[in-house]
Amino acid sequence: MITSGQQLKSVQETISRFAESIEEVKRQQAEGKIPANDAEISIGGFNYEIKKLKQQVDEYKSLISGSMDYIDARKLEDLPRTMIQLRLALGWSQKRLADELGVQQQQIARYEATDYEGISFQRMLVMLNAFDAHISIEKIRMTIDGKSQTKFLLPKGYKPEDIVRKKRMGLFNLSKAAS
């Protein structure tokens, strides 16, 4: 994931180098220096990497453009990536976030470089508060006695049978009701 303008520039340079490498492989293949199968494999590998990097560039540009209405994290494991996405979507630099939290910019850079590996849950809540971001948990999946179960956290005033009836009638969207 691209987390800064500097990384964006570096990724774009890498894409250019891969494109140049493709042209070089094609040239060498045309000159008979590389067998066609080897050239095809090399070009396929470069194209695959270019595609992945372009997806990262597109995501970064989408985030910093402010065109995203919401950021969707499906699992708790997605939260570190979501924290970076929130910062970018708000147009905040690592320095701005550091200033909001009263830490050095290098600390934010370390958090992001390690996907927030060493951060405490309390610090993460403070960061979410700084972003004015809110987390909504709609269901919890757990295993009890070897059986996987999903427990829905219902909006205030709803009973499980109301949800089932309204869902059957197409009148209930759990994600909207939880807001």
What's the domain count? 3
Distance between termini?
29 Å
Number of H- or I-type helical stretches:
8
| Assembly of the depicted chains | single chain
What global shape is seen? Answer: extended
Biggest sheet details: 2 strands, antiparallel
Low-confidence stretches: 166-179
- The topology string of helices and strands comes to HHHHHHEEHH
User: Level of helix content?
Assistant: 55-70%
Tell me the radius of gyration: 23 Å
- Average predicted local confidence, pLDDT: 84
Count of β-strands: 2
Based on secondary structure, the structural category is mainly alpha
Major sheet: order of its strands?
Answer: 1-2
Strand residues, percent: 5-15%
Protein name: HTH cro/C1-type domain-containing protein
Domain HTH cro/C1-type: 83-140
InterPro entries: Cro/C1-type_HTH, Lambda_DNA-bd_dom_sf
